[in-house]
Write a structure and sequence with these properties.
Blueprint lengths: L15 H16 L2 H7 L7 H9 L15 H4 L1 H16 L2 H4 L5 H26 L5 H26 L5
Helix pairs in contact: 1-5, 1-8, 5-7, 7-8
Keywords: Membrane, Transmembrane, Transmembrane helix
Length: about 160
């Protein structure tokens, strides 16, 4: 006898949290890559498109570090922590299971909210744990992280629509 109350679905679909996590991993891997970050520096920062493309590069990661006192993991903590927190929050925010109206709108908003919260928490934690971590710097970094999460989170929300609740 099964102790879970999950509906049976077609085996070709993953969970909404799983597809959202995969999308978050791909978004951070592609838009945070050194190749993308280098390319996006040539875009116009005064236009909306250039601003958005630069914002997508916020969780930038590097293959090597310029500062020998910090390892690659410390340099890339923001990108790693963003994917981990996004996965955790996508699993913890099952909006479609508790919403009054079941459906795709709650899956979309749950994925979007999870990514915005993950980006905000990531920015806060990395600013506090990083060098010179003052409370003011942490608050300013958090505002940048939440802005990134708000404008990039719809991508995770759309990816969450591809899975079951």
């Amino acid at each position: 006898m099964a102790l879970t109350n999950r509906p049976r679905t077609v085996s070709g679909y993953g969970t909404a949290a799983g597809t959202g996590t995969l999308a978050a991993l791909l978004l951070v891997a592609v838009c945070g890559s050194p190749l993308y970050v280098g390319w996006v520096q040539d875009t116009d920062p005064d236009g909306a498109g250039g601003w958005f493309l630069r914002l997508l590069a916020w969780p930038a990661w590097r293959l090597h570090t310029d500062d020998p006192s910090q390892g690659v993991l410390a340099t890339n903590l923001r990108a790693v922590l963003l994917v981990i927190l996004a996965a955790a929050l996508l699993y913890l925010l099952p909006a479609s299971q508790v919403a009054r109206v079941q459906g795709s709108a709650s899956q979309f908003l749950s994925g979007w909210a999870a990514y915005a919260l993950a980006a905000g928490f990531t920015a806060l934690l990395t600013a506090l744990l990083g060098p010179g971590g003052s409370l003011l710097a942490a608050f300013q970094a958090t505002s940048t992280g939440v802005t990134y999460g708000f404008f990039a989170g719809w991508i995770i929300g759309l990816a969450s629509l591809g899975g079951r609740a």
